[in-house]
Amino acid sequence: MKRGVGGGTFTRFWREKVADRPDEGASTRTQFEVNASWRRFSRMDGHPPHRPHPAFSRLLPFHGSRIAPTLVAALIALASPALADPTEDFYKSHQINWILSAGAGGGYSTYAQVFAPFWSAHLPGKPGIAVQNMPGAGGLRAMQYFYANAPRDGSVVGLVHASVPFAPLFDLPGSKFDSRKFEWIGSLNSETELCIAWHDAGLRDWNDVLEKPFLIGGTGGGSQMETLPESINRMFGTKMKIISGYTSGSDVYLAMERGEVQGRCSVGASSVNATRPEWFPKHLVDVPVVIGLKRDPSFPDTPSLYEHAKDERTKQILEALLSYQDMERPVLAPPGVPAERLAALKRAFHEAMNDPAFIAEAKRVRLDIFELSGEKVAKIVDDAYALPPDVLKAAKDMMSFDTGAGK
Questions:
Q1: Which 3 state secondary structure label does DSSP give 208?
Q2: Using CA atoms, how far apart are residues 214 and 242, in angstroms rounded to an integer?
Q3: Cα 199 to Cα 193, 202, 279, 280, 287, distances in angstroms
Q4: φ/ψ of residue 109, rounded to 5
Q5: What are the chain's domains?
Q6: 266 sits in which H/E element
Q7: Is 360 exposed, middle or buried (0-12, 13-18, 19+ CB in 10 A)?
Q8: Partner residues linked to 216 by β-bridges
Q9: What are phi and psi of 205, to 5 degrees?
């Protein structure tokens, strides 16, 4: 079937061949180029070269004047709305607010600050991305904001605590949202977590954690810094005591350095490397246990919590509690973001994660990165919500507790 010289094809052709070129000797140029262009275009469009296409015939009477370029410009102007990108137009005029569920100065902030300019560079319109912090209730405050109050136009995205999307499964206070309804963009990393203890605390291995009191800092009842240690206490009989109320993980690090607490449980090695790069090389902290279903490659001689489980039931509960670790730095948009803007956010996220300049910068500042697509993050969430009710109830029972004394 032959294609006519429709607005899109005709406009693109004339942009390339005539309209966008400098207007030097317009009358002569137009007359000769109309003839030459017609011969090339007619072969491309399926018309015999000896018979001008009607669209060209209408221009021929004006070969000797400057009217032909004017007509070409008019045709281009008529076609331009079809060529416009509404997503690019939106992001040219809107800043993106990237809201973190953690406080400033910690690992989450470091990831966002490093990644933001690369994400922006790959988005249509190259919008500015402003990194903001909304700590509170271990990340639940921000999640509730995204679910109920955040703009749904693609101008707000979030980076949240990995465990927080699963809080409703365990009926944690303040978790009035359905994580399956969020628009998952991707995850910046995938990693197991650690218990770290200050070097003079005398907590060097799992036996020490079983036998000695362990004073750890936390940021609120919804965060894994508190839910996981208390669950471990209940499953294994450890003696971790939580000092709650710190604003961020970075504040817990400061508390460790000041001697207010002995350590922090549920922290990724990447967070420590990014914010306290001297701690591991100088042996300022010990890693008595890896909180994960497998060992951490950075600490191959330290057993995982899963290895210490004595029965199948405990292993099932750990699988439910630790299912979030494959999406350690999840990025989301509120429910209901327009499909074309969500697609642009996901596409730019993927391109930025694979940008050699970002990879080099992440290496320079010691950020571990591992891309997980939005679809894979959504599947992890969906699979967790589909766990057997009895397993979820057992995990919920392990996480039902009152926090320790406030800071």
A1: helix
A2: 9
A3: 18, 7, 10, 10, 9
A4: -65, -40
A5: 7-84 (no CATH), 88-190+326-389 (3.40.190.150), 193-325 (3.40.190.10)
A6: strand 263-267
A7: exposed
A8: 242, 263
A9: -145, 180
Position of tokens 């011969």?
Answer: 39
315 vs 98: CA distance, rounded Å: 36
Among the listed residues 160, 77, 148, 152, the one whose alpha carbon sits nearest the alpha carbon of residue 111: 160
Per-residue pLDDT tens for 148-168?
A: 999 999 999 999 999 899 999
Sheet holding 129-133, edge to edge: 129-133, 96-100, 156-159, 330-333, 183-187, 372-373
Q: What pLDDT, in 10s, does the model give residues 249-275?
A: 899 999 999 999 999 998 989 889 988
Residues 6+ away with beta carbon under 8 Å from 161: 101, 102, 108, 138, 139, 222, 223, 224
Q: Provide the token pair at 237.
A: 């009989």
Single-letter amino acid, residue 27: S
pTM above 0.70, yes or no: yes
Neighbours of 63 (CB within 10 A): 16
Res 69: pLDDT:
56
